[in-house]
Amino acid sequence: MAMAQSLQELVALGVIFSVPIALLLEGAEASNELPSFKEHQFSYYVQLQTGGAPNLGILRPPINTTISANFGSSTIFAFNVTESELRTSKSLGLIRGYTVETSYVSGDMRLLEVEFLQYDDGRYKGTVQYQGAVTSTGTELAIVGGSCSFRGVRGYVVVNFISSVPPFSTYRHDVTLLE
């Protein structure tokens, strides 16, 4: 009987101590997670390389240039993302994606663009997914999601041309996250 009571006391102590230990372990696991991005705006620069660049390729040529300009032409890309407009500034990651020409009119650029930003500034790390229309008069893409530090984000990115020094063109991406 004394042995059964000792066993019951031992089980009770195990239950009593297991709850605080579980809570401590849960906190330790959470500390390994990346912090959520809490700011509402950030900017970065995309270094677009052209002219035989290894990070820019034609997926599909235009469907029929005699009647529809470049309609259907598809391009895949991967470009460096930097902290400032200088190509030698701190790398923040890569932007990768594809475009499809959707205009039927010669000289009129209208691209469907789907891309994702792979971002790591040392504090925040993850991906942000964009999609929308790129035009010669301006580009604003929708933010449709993210991962890691950017999990569940929504918002938009405005893309502005900064400079061109062949074979590079530099674009500034101003990101606005909505609450």
Automatic annotation (TrEMBL):
Subcellular location: Secreted, Extracellular space, Apoplast
Swiss-Prot/TrEMBL keywords: Apoplast, Secreted, Signal
InterPro entries: Allene_oxi_cyc_Dirigent (IPR044859), Dirigent (IPR004265)
Coiled coil location: none
Gene Ontology CC, one term: apoplast
Main localization category: secreted
UniProt-recorded name of the protein: Dirigent protein
Organism the protein comes from: Ceratopteris richardii
